[in-house]
Write a structure and sequence with these properties.
There is one protein chain. It is built from 19 helices and 14 strands. The longest helix has 26 residues. It has two domains: 193 residues, 3-Deoxy-D-manno-octulosonic-acid transferase, N-terminal domain (Rossmann fold); 193 residues, 3-Layer(aba) Sandwich (Rossmann fold). It is globular.
C-alpha cells in the first residue's frame, strides 16, 4: 500500500519537480537534463561501459563526490574488468565527477518516478549499486531489490540536525532502508540512528569515514611556488584561504581580513564561495567594501599581473580547492560561522595546513572533535574571534607548522575505512 500511495503522489509531484529542475538549470546557465533524469541514456554513452559488469556509485553533489574518490580508486584497482558508473544529482557534482579518471561513465540520477527508475536500471543492469552517505529513494531501492541488485550504503551518516526529521518520518524511510543489503555507517552513533529510523540491525555496521583516506602529503616548496605562480600570487605573501563560504559569512571574513591587514602588510586572501554561481553576489559585496579583487576566471596567464597584499582572489570555479589549500599558509573552513553545518576539515589537514573553523559543525561533528583532539586546528566560538585566532597563527609560523604536522598524523592514524567498505562490497561482486 505504501508504494501505491507513493507512486500516486509522485505523479502529482512530477510537474512541480520538472519545473524546479528547469528553473534551477536555466538560472545557473546550464541545459536541463530531462532525458537522463527519465532514464534516456544515449546509446553512444552506454558504449563506454559495453558488456562489462557495472559498479554504480551514486554521489549526490560535490561533497559526496570528493568523499567517494578513495573508494573509486580502490574499486578501479581491485576490479579492473568492471565498468564504473558515477551518478550525481547536482550539476556541480556532475562536473566534479566527470573529471575522475577512475569512472567510465557519468550520468544524472533519475527522478524517483517509477518508469524513469525502471528504464535506467534496465539499461545499465548494474552488478551493484553503492550510494554515498544518506540518499534514500523508495522507488529506486525497491526496483533495485526487485531486480536482485545489491544495494550498499557507503560512508553513511545521520547528522544531529537531520536525525529528528528522519525519525519523525521513519514510517516513510524504513521501507527503503529495509531493502539495503548492507549499510556502512561512519560512527557507532550513525549506526544506532539509522537502525532507529528503520534499517535492519543485522545489516548495519560501523565502517569509519572514507574521507580520512584521502591522500595526505607534505607540500614541497617547489610545488607551492609553482601553484602560486599559476594563480599570480607572489611567493612572499602570506596566504589565507577562506574555503566553502556561505551567505552571511563572506562579510565576516572580509571584516577579519581588513582588521588583520592593519598588522600584517603581506597578507593575501583567497575567497572561495561554496557555490560558484554566487560569484556575482560575492563580487558585488567586494565592490561595496572597496576591496580590490579579481575573479579566478579572469586571470590571464599571458599578462600574469601579480596580486598584491590587501587584494582578493575570488574563486568562481570548482575543482581547485585542494590546489588552493596546498598553496596556502592558513585556512578558514566555511559553513561554520553561520548555521550551515560546516565543511570538510580533512582537506587542509591532508596538505599539512592548519584550519580555523566556527561553532556550527553539526554535519562534521566527529571530524571537528578529532581535529581538536589532535590539535590540528582551532575552533572559534564567535565570528568576532576569527581575526584573533588568525592573528595568533599568522604571528607564530612555528605553531602553524606544528598544527599542520598534527593534521597529517591525524590522517595517518584514522585511515582504513575504504578497505572496510571494500570487504563489504566484495561479498556482492
Amino acid at each position: 500500500m505504501f508504494y501505491v500511495l507513493y507512486n500516486i503522489l509522485s505523479i502529482f509531484l512530477l510537474i512541480p519537480v520538472c519545473l524546479y529542475h528547469l528553473y534551477r538549470s536555466l538560472s545557473r546557465g546550464r541545459p536541463p537534463a530531462f532525458a537522463e533524469r527519465f532514464g534516456q541514456i544515449p546509446t553512444e554513452e552506454l558504449k563506454k561501459i559495453g558488456q562489462r559488469p557495472v559498479i554504480w556509485l551514486h554521489a549526490v553533489s560535490v561533497g559526496e563526490a570528493i568523499a567517494a574518490r578513495p573508494l573509486l580508486q580502490a574499486l578501479r584497482k581491485r576490479y579492473p574488468d568492471h565498468a564504473i558508473l558515477v551518478s550525481n544529482t547536482t550539476e556541480t557534482g556532475r562536473k566534479i565527477a566527470t573529471g575522475f579518471p577512475e569512472k567510465d561513465l557519468c550520468i544524472y540520477f533519475p527522478f524517483d518516478f517509477l518508469p524513469a527508475v525502471g528504464r535506467t536500471l534496465d539499461r545499465i543492469k548494474p552488478a551493484i549499486v553503492i550510494i554515498m552517505e544518506t540518499e534514500i529513494w523508495p522507488n529506486f531501492t525497491r526496483e533495485a531489490a526487485r531486480r536482485q541488485i545489491p544495494l550498499v550504503l557507503a560512508n553513511g551518516r545521520i547528522s544531529d540536525r537531520s536525525f529528528s526529521g528522519y525519525l519523525r518520518f521513519s514510517w516513510f524511510f524504513r521501507h527503503s532502508l529495509e531493502l539495503f543489503s548492507t549499510l556502512c555507517m561512519q560512527t557507532d552513533t550513525d549506526r544506532e540512528r539509522i537502525v532507529a529510523i528503520g534499517a535492519r540491525p543485522g545489516h548495519t555496521l560501523t565502517a569509519g569515514n572514507i574521507k580520512y583516506d584521502i591522500p595526505f602529503r607534505q607540500v614541497q616548496p617547489e610545488e607551492r611556488a609553482a601553484l602560486r605562480e599559476r594563480y599570480a600570487i607572489p611567493g612572499p605573501l602570506t596566504v589565507l584561504v577562506a574555503g566553502s563560504t556561505h551567505p552571511g559569512e563572506e562579510e565576516l571574513v572580509l571584516a577579519a581580513y581588513r582588521e588583520l591587514l592593519a598588522g600584517h602588510s603581506n597578507l593575501f586572501l583567497v575567497l572561495v564561495p561554496r557555490h560558484p554561481e554566487r560569484a556575482a553576489e560575492v563580487a558585488a559585496l567586494l565592490e561595496r567594501a572597496n576591496m580590490p579583487f579579481r575573479r579566478r576566471t579572469a586571470l590571464d596567464a599571458s599578462l600574469h599581473v601579480a596580486f598584491a597584499s590587501g587584494e582578493v582572489l575570488l574563486v568562481d570555479t570548482i575543482g581547485e580547492m585542494m590546489d588552493l589549500y596546498a598553496l596556502s599558509d592558513l585556512v578558514f573552513v566555511g559553513g561554520s560561522l553561520v548555521p550551515t553545518g560546516g565543511h570538510n576539515l580533512l582537506e587542509p589537514a591532508s596538505v599539512g595546513v592548519p584550519s580555523i573553523f566556527g561553532p556550527h559543525m553539526t554535519n562534521f561533528r566527529e571530524i571537528a572533535d578529532l581535529v581538536l583532539k589532535y590539535r590540528a586546528g582551532i575552533q572559534v566560538a564567535t565570528p568576532a574571534a576569527l581575526a584573533g585566532a588568525c592573528r595568533g597563527l599568522l604571528d607564530d609560523p612555528g605553531q602553524r607548522q606544528a598544527l599542520g604536522a598534527n593534521g597529517q598524523a591525524m590522517m595517518q592514524d584514522n585511515g582504513g575505512a575504504t578497505e572496510r567498505h571494500m570487504e563489504v562490497i566484495a561479498r556482492y561482486l
